[in-house]
Specification:
Elements lengths: L7 E6 L3 E7 L11 E5 L4 E2 L11 H8 L4 H10 L6
Antiparallel strand pairs: 1-2, 2-3, 3-4
């Protein structure tokens, strides 16, 4: 899936696992703020607790409560703080 004009941040997670933050807001529905994470090793979007797309920091935090704390902290570290 090509996401043209996306903003991405990358962070090495779990040794060789490279995860990128991908802003996809406006790509699907104009004016939306969705974002996701992409694993460049498996070449797939990351699924956390059954979710692949989030629309707010609050939404992400709800999902991260069910993740490994170290992994959750790394996801937080690559996520821009200025998302709604």
């Amino acid at each position: 899936m090509a996401l043209h004009g996306h903003h991405a941040r990358k962070q090495e997670i779990g040794g060789s696992r490279m995860i990128r933050y991908v802003y996809i807001g406006g790509q699907i529905i104009e004016g939306e703020t969705e974002f996701a994470y992409y694993d460049t090793i498996s070449d797939r979007f990351v699924t956390l607790n059954g979710d692949q797309v989030w629309d707010s920091w609050e939404d992400l935090e709800e999902t991260l409560k069910y993740c490994d704390p170290q992994f959750a902290n790394r996801i937080r570290a690559i996520t821009p703080k200025n998302i709604p």
